[in-house]
């Protein structure tokens, strides 16, 4: 078990090194110059050169990279040119918002997807199965920004059930938090529900054909007991894999959904950074999302071993 | 054998492929008393596993029971609502499957799989269930029983897993046990151990045991009565001695002749020509007729009824050996 973990951890570190290198390389890959965002076109070459010097952009790229890594390892992601404050502080301030949004969306997607997948598998080829599959396909095909706008128009503007946007921290007002987060989380989750439901259904159908399900039936267990105690635990490994992918997709989707619902999360920070070529913000934001994604996948790897004792033998 | 009323009484059981008239089992009848072992023999495709599943109410969706009765203590299971039949499973009737490798849940500790029956079907508390499970593991001779409860199936050998299956089947104090080729997937030495264990527990508890196998050697070892199944029909039923000493059906005779002998010269192994007819290609008359060396014209058009020939011995053949008067009747 510990060697299993060590291997996964080593793999995650390699990925992290690659990701961080890529986020640093953004400076070289993206056209344009950050100075252009601060200085208007009438700026003299001397002014541009001075700003470049202040930002460290005049040094050789390798020196810039070593500087950058040194700072990142100390937790300093640089200084945002536009916000005029530390990127680390800006991200940490917004991180709880994004995490509560994607976390809530993940819970919704898992509960909805697994439940729908089980219903479909148990009623294989009958109407509940077809209904679930049709709805899942619909969910998979709808763009999240469109769905978000529709929810705002119908539920917030027409019926006034939820606020049209904004975010209330959980600590301030749990009920207000729920009201502010439910539409954006649902928007994020609906696409993933379809994905998880399809995987759960396929995995359950495979498991339900196996001998030990017949054994459970021969014990006289109730249908629900057979499904939940013997079926689902055996169908879990592929669902976990999908869960990891979904967590990543939710983080990516949050960038758009935070924009649609004007939620002040890391996603909006990154978009603001991109629009104003605020490199430290882009680099820091991407690195943060990558680290979270890696941690989620590491957790999934550990959960594999919990879900299936045979994994530990590897 | 004392004349008690049978625990299990199967009468005219016929199963068909859903949505067609193709029969899988046809008019199968037998009965089984407490403490009695009925051995069911047949080749692959004879329908013997379907018979076991039909008793349990676990037939695959593609197959349904068309007619007949399966009475357990006088109660017809087929006419019970599905959830009441489910209630009987694991409580009054239990089953051991052929493949101990796949018949256990791979992600659940074996102890939990046994305790589950004790808690759900006998209403024991978790701690009581654990005690009984340890006791059951002792009874099925699993060494270091208490530690083994925590094992997962993949950590056990095939023989040990089959012992777990047996413990599970005995957990609910069922009075009828159905064993579908419980030793086929095991090594020969382990086979003998499992067989001894089953026989011991069956005797101790006075269980009615329906033992399904294709191995006549195993049948000779364990069964009181033998039912020979051929292509979904009963070919012959008789006490075990009579099956071996005085088989009346040509198929039974051929089966016994195909057991390799230890004594005498090593000849080629005796086989039965041809194969069991497959579903949908059943002959019109006697289903064994195409392979039968004693076949007459009438065998190809008339399905032979199962008729008693002596006390306790019934045969479905128009010309059983040694009973010319039956042959006469058939040709009248």
Automatic annotation (TrEMBL), chain A:
- Upper classification of the organism: Bacteria, Pseudomonadati, Pseudomonadota, Alphaproteobacteria, Hyphomicrobiales
Bilayer topology: Multi-pass membrane protein
Q: Which UniProt keywords apply?
A: Cell membrane, Membrane, Transmembrane, Transmembrane helix, Transport
One matching Pfam family is BPD_transp_1_N
List the transmembrane segments. Answer: 101-122, 134-157, 177-197, 235-257, 286-307
Principal place where this protein is found? membrane
Cellular compartment(s): Cell membrane
What is the protein name given in its UniProt record? ABC transporter permease
- The species this protein belongs to is Microvirga alba
| Positions of the ABC transmembrane type-1 domain | 95-304
Residues folding into a coiled coil are none
Task: State any GO BP term from the record.
Answer: transmembrane transport
UniProt cross-references to InterPro entries, sorted A to Z: BPD_transp_1_N, MetI-like, MetI-like_sf
Q: Which GO terms describe its cellular component?
A: plasma membrane
Spell out the family assignment given in the record's similarity comment.
Answer: Belongs to the binding-protein-dependent transport system permease family.
UniProtKB/TrEMBL annotation, chain B:
Looking at the record, the residues that make up the ABC transporter domain are: 8-256
PANTHER family, per database record: DIPEPTIDE TRANSPORT ATP-BINDING PROTEIN DPPD (PTHR43297:SF2), OLIGOPEPTIDE TRANSPORT ATP-BINDING PROTEIN APPD (PTHR43297)
Q: From which source organism is this entry?
A: Microvirga alba
Query: NCBIfam families, alphabetically?
Result: oligo_HPY (TIGR01727)
State the membrane topology. Peripheral membrane protein
**Which keywords describe this protein according to UniProt?**
ATP-binding, Cell membrane, Membrane, Nucleotide-binding, Transport
Supply the name of the protein.
ABC transporter ATP-binding protein
* Stored SMART domains: AAA (SM00382)
Q: Where in the cell is it found?
A: Cell inner membrane
Cross-referenced Pfam families, in alphabetical order? Answer: ABC_tran (PF00005), oligo_HPY (PF08352)
Q: Which GO terms describe its biological process?
A: peptide transport; transmembrane transport
Per the record, the similarity remark reads:
Belongs to the ABC transporter superfamily.
UniProt superkingdom: Bacteria
What CDD domains does the entry give? Answer: ABC_NikE_OppD_transporters
Q: Which InterPro entries match?
A: AAA+_ATPase, ABC_Ni/Peptide_Import, ABC_transporter-like_ATP-bd, ABC_transporter-like_CS, Oligopep_ABC_C, P-loop_NTPase
- Cytoplasm as a keyword of this entry, yes or no, is no
Which GO cellular component terms, listed alphabetically, does the Swiss-Prot or TrEMBL entry include?
plasma membrane
Example of a GO MF term: ATP binding
